[in-house]
Amino acid sequence: MKFSEKIEALKKELSSHQPSDLDAVEAFRIKYLGSKGLFKDLFQEFKSVSSEEKRAFGKVLNGLKNEAEEKVNSWKEQLSEQKTEKVSIDLTRPSMLRELGAEHPISIIKREIIDIFHGIGFSVAEGPEIEDDWHNFTALNFPPEHPARDMQDTFFVRNPNGEEDHVLRTHTSSVQVRVMTNEKPPIRIIAPGRVFRNEAVSARSHCIFHQIEGLYIDEGVTFADMKQTLEYFAKEFFGKSKIRLRPSYFPFTEPSAEVDVYWGLENEVDHRITKGTGWLEVMGCGMVDPAVLESCGIDPEKYSGFAFGMGLERSAMQRFQIPDIRMIFENDIRFLKQFQSTF
Ligand code: DAH
Q1: Which of 32, 58, 36 is nearest to 47 (CA)?
Q2: What is the C-alpha to C-alpha distance for residues 3 and 42, in angstroms, rounded to an integer?
């Protein structure tokens, strides 16, 4: 077949072609435009035709090739549009329900307490769970032979040399020391965290539990400031406006007190949780002992402050009527998914 005839034949073929799907488009592309396609052959042949034929067909050949390429592109577009049109999607249909995780009861209580103190200018501080003796005891004014350091209460941690010079912190009061040694007053922090005590595990007590510590240091902070702050907290958190402070003892505060909230005695539960007194013990507190300020490099002549510490499990158990503290740590999904903040 002569070159001119080949081009005529090709022209015809191209104009009559109508692929029905994307596979057919691809087959067309390979047959005509592929690296071993018809156009390739024709361009090869073009090199050796006479110069009149070159003049006559050069433009035509290029034009046909462009035309074929455009066709391939537009077929592809058309056919892929058709493809998506065929799948019917109902965009108004509600999505499948996704199962959401629930907040842990301890996290709920913790978040609520942080929110309350945030509102009166306290920020959150953190410290390590593995703590040295100085931060957990010495700086907090625990005498060397204080029973709290005893094997009974404290989990000791051995260092690589075999010395037991660290502990799993027994309270979040260690964070007070960390903050006071690192920051200058005014200090207003709360420190939520896990604490550890070497105690027998039962329905009412556990070797792991959570506390929130509070600390406020500035010039001229008084016992009255502490009482006001704690009253405010009791109102916000428990919805109870009456508290009382009972004298108590902690090595790191002087004077020290135990805070009771007046719960009332309206029903059987009130009787049970307050042991028939109407009062519920909720935290320990006191004015930071000057010796503690001094240990932490704060001048007790210039500054004073108060501190408080409370457990979270008791509040969580009360709020959510959890009968056994162990449930809080077992991570049974059927237990965990039940709780919601009432805030
Ligand atoms: N650290 C104490 C405990 O674990 C609680 C406590 C009492 C913290 C009085 C304080 C405080 O900051 O002032 O039993």
Answers
A1: 58
A2: 8
Amino acid, res. 82: Q
Count CB atoms within 10 A of the CB of residue 78.
13
- Ligand 1 centroid – CA 312 distance (Å): 13
Mutate to test the pocket of ligand 1, among 122, 141, 168, 171 (most ligand atoms within 8 A of CB): 171
pLDDT band at 83 (very low <50, low <70, confident <90, very high): low
- Region 100-128: mean pLDDT is 95
pLDDT of 235: 96
Structure tokens that stand for 343 in this block: 């805030």
Q: What 3-state DSSP class applies to 78? A: helix
Q: Whose CA is nearest to atom 7 of ligand 1?
A: 284
* pLDDT number for residue 307: 98
Structure tokens at 65: 């090739």
Amino acid at 242: K
Q: What is the pLDDT of residues 174-206, one digit of tens each?
A: 999 999 999 999 999 999 999 999 989 999 899
Cα–Cα distance for residue pair 291/143, rounded to 1 Å: 12
Which residue has the least CA distance to atom 8 on ligand 1? 309
Using CB atoms within 10 A of its CB, is residue 81 exposed (0-12), middle (13-18) or buried (19+)?
A: exposed
Alpha-carbon distances, residue 82 vs 44, 69, 213 (angstroms): 37, 20, 65
* Residue recorded with tokens 């005891």: 137
What's the 121 CA to ligand 1 centre distance in angstroms?
21
- Ligand 1 centre distance from Cα of residue 120 (Å): 21
